[in-house]
Amino acid sequence: MKTEKVSLIIGVSISVLFGIFGFKYFQYIDTPTIQRNFSPVMESFEVLDLRVNDFKYKLKDSVPSTAPVALIAIDDASVREIGRWPWSRETVAKLTQQLIDLGAKSVAFDVIFSEPEMGNLQADAQFAKVVENNPDKIILGTFSENQFNFKPYQDLCVAEAFLKTGGDQIVKLNAGFVMDEESLETDDLNWGPLFNVIFQNVQAQDEADVLASLEKKSVEELTPYQKNFLKAHQSQALFDYCKTWLTSSDTFLDPAFSSRVAPLYLDVASKSETLKDLSFDAFLNKIRNNYVAHPIPQYGEWTSNIADLQNPANYTASFIAQLDSDGYVRRYPLFFRSGNKLGSSFIPSLALQGYLLSGPYRAELKIATSKAGRKSIDEFNIIDTSTEPEKKLLSYPVDKSGQVLVNYYGRQMSIPYVSAKEFFNDKDTLKVQRSVLNTKSKQLQIELGEFSKKEFLKDRSLIIGATAIGLYDLRNTPIEANYPGPEIHATMLANLLEQKFLKPWDHESKYLPWLILALGCLLTVMWAYFGSLLSFAVLIIVMVSFSIFDFWLFNDSQVLIHSYLVYGNILSVFFSVQLYKYFTEEKKKRELKTTFSKYVSPAVVDELLKDVENLKLGGRKERMSVFFSDVRGFTTISEKLSPEELSRVLNLYLTPMTELVFKNKGTLDKYMGDAIMAFFGAPVKNPQHAAEACRCALDSIVKLKELQKEFADQGLPYIDIGIGINTGEMSVGNMGSNIVQNYTVMGDSVNLASRLEGINKEYGTRIVISEFTYGDVKKEFTAREIDRVRVKGKLEPVRIFELLCEGIPDQSFSYLTDFNQGYRLYHDKKFSEALGKFNSSLNLSQDDPVSKLYIQRCQDYLEEAPPSDWDGVFVMKTK
Questions:
Q1: CA 513/CA 20 separation, integer angstroms
Q2: In 315-458, which ranges are continuous DSSP H helix?
Q3: What count of other Cβ atoms lies within 10 Å of the Cβ of residue 662?
Q4: What's the whole-number mean pLDDT along residues 330-344?
Q5: Are the C-beta atoms of residues 497 and 358 closer than 8 Å to each other?
């Protein structure tokens, strides 16, 4: 067959596949998130699609926002001047009252006050008074970490659980937010009495379980901390029950309970003319079959502010950041829900609630049901209630899940920033950091201006949030990494006020796949018959022309299309037609060497390339050793350093520590801030992986002492580290998506190593290894067993050891004999004899933290003996 014909077949086939895939892809991304059937392929393509579109954000013209919005920033300067966050509620009350007195339209909090202020109840009362006096201007914040995929009909249960756990105070009846949704007959029934009975039983059982786990007989015996734990546990128990409601796991449908519960269900049904004659089973089946998935994502328990603040507040809004599948913030949910009760289950976002308070506005959300029975958001309108008759102010281009595209104005500080410290002085003016357009570069640049407080704040919608680096409310965005989370809310609020919408092409899913197919076939014909140079010229012309058109749509018309499919088809057809062999074995090796040179030493890379079997990078099971190290108290250190100093400290620490990993034939997995994760035994197999990991740990402690002296000489903070090592089977290979991958390890053995690193803080040690690692290295290294622990997330206890040295210990470890004897006596419940040995060990070691720990434990058990079934296992409550 001629080359031209093969090229035509290849090119047309690829274009057809892209066209078919385009229809499937748009069907996937147009489906509300909660209704999607997860597809790794589609998810991977969506990530790549999003990343391609990110270039448009970076290249677009920056336009300063003129919206009456400002961010009151809890920034580094404010933390230095006022004190570390959280501030006293007296301070927050003073700040809030001043903002309102200066004429702010609304004050929204991108923070939460979920615990009473310790030792100063008057401060809470003072802040509560401000909220009570200004309920029409203050918006409290709330969030939920529990997004569940409940069955559609379980919305009925979730709604009642939400109200039972304080949701009635989070979402008060708000005339500014209206849902236009067809309700079912079961929605209008009074479910409260039924669920009150069920929930009482659930919480009573949960209370009994918690008391048993704490070895208490009544709630009165609990400490304040334990009472808070019980309350939170009981709240979560309701939502956990809702996940089982009317399923085979529903304990209240068990014959032992159903005879008592059935009358309650039938009493609910009796209030409906069409349902009252149904049998118990028929009524339950009616409920199960009546519902389809709601398009707005469902959340479980919400964290509310303390009752003193929550009760007088009229408005509470969510500050949850909705992340795309790659962890970036591009879309913004305007509302959230817990259940399906109109008016009492839906929570507006911070930006939407701030916008509604900027004028006499009402939000109207219309939900439609398709012929296929799927629900989706059909329309979202803002109604101006100041006119007679009321008129529609705008229609916002939400997707079918109620999310909108964030129209970023530029890099951070595109919205005016005012440092919170500006309100703690007697000046009538304040300094404002804001972006102005540089007419030459067409980019925003930060300027510091001084304004009258009253003039600047009059009728301005404000958001109070944390931007200080040490408070970690930073997000990745298409514009910039480490973008302050509060500014995302402020940006969306400005978008609403200015009506600057970034919207998708309405008919994209219908027409774009056909355009992809037609363009691909046309280019295939040309590239099948053109020479290489001419084909490449056509490629450049087509790519540049479409890129200009694509960017014009985005920049000038504020229309975002999924252009990745077009680019992908063009490039796939071109390279497929021009090349029959895209990769050679040598190119694979060069790419492999480039990839692994970031993780291992050059010597290991050369060894890796010697054997073709080493080129198989797919995930595989291997017995290996994994290593975690972490700087102690790094959060406190980072709060004291500028970003430049922090970066320098990290570089001075991470560089030599990484060199030690490579020196000991380890593979660097990743940096997690100040933490290092490495593994030994891959990509090249090494039977001595456990010994290499232990040697690396000991070398790290030696290097740490050198760094501590260097840091002291340079006036840098004192640092200390903890290291955890575990050996076992784990999955190793290229993990991730088809687009973004990382050579890494996964599995329970990896998780255990991470827990062991954290355990150092409990015992005052620096290196903790598992019994599995110790079994491999006990002939070469000296270690002492320091406990048997059950780490968080695991049921079986693990023996843990402190790694001390390589080879035979010298005289400095003379205390080990007494310690080991005391340890055996401790586990034999001979606490008095063990106490003597541990005291002797401490006298020899002078400052052994593990001996001190066991001295305290022995004293505790001598005062109050452990239970008869005590097995000596210590349960770790934290990670």
A1: 7
A2: 350-356, 453-457
A3: 18
A4: 80
A5: yes
